[in-house]
Amino acid sequence: MFDSSAVVTCGADLEAILGARPGVMMLKSIHFLDEHCERLLAYSPFVVIGTTTGDGARQTIVLGGEPGLATPRSDTELELGN
Q: Contact 42/68 with Cβ under 8 angstroms?
């Protein structure tokens, strides 16, 4: 286990905690939450969520709070503000 209070200062520090990014991460995007996403969300005190509406308009939501404030309900849904 690692010390979750440690400060992450660069990408290498983040990968040391969460593991290396999976190859799919380097593609344009994925439409589901994989294991890497779930680990990142569990330790993140903030999230930036981008979505599109039915008519294609883009929306962005920024939330902050305690680590794990966004938790997966499934591989395509998040629960916010636990």
A: yes
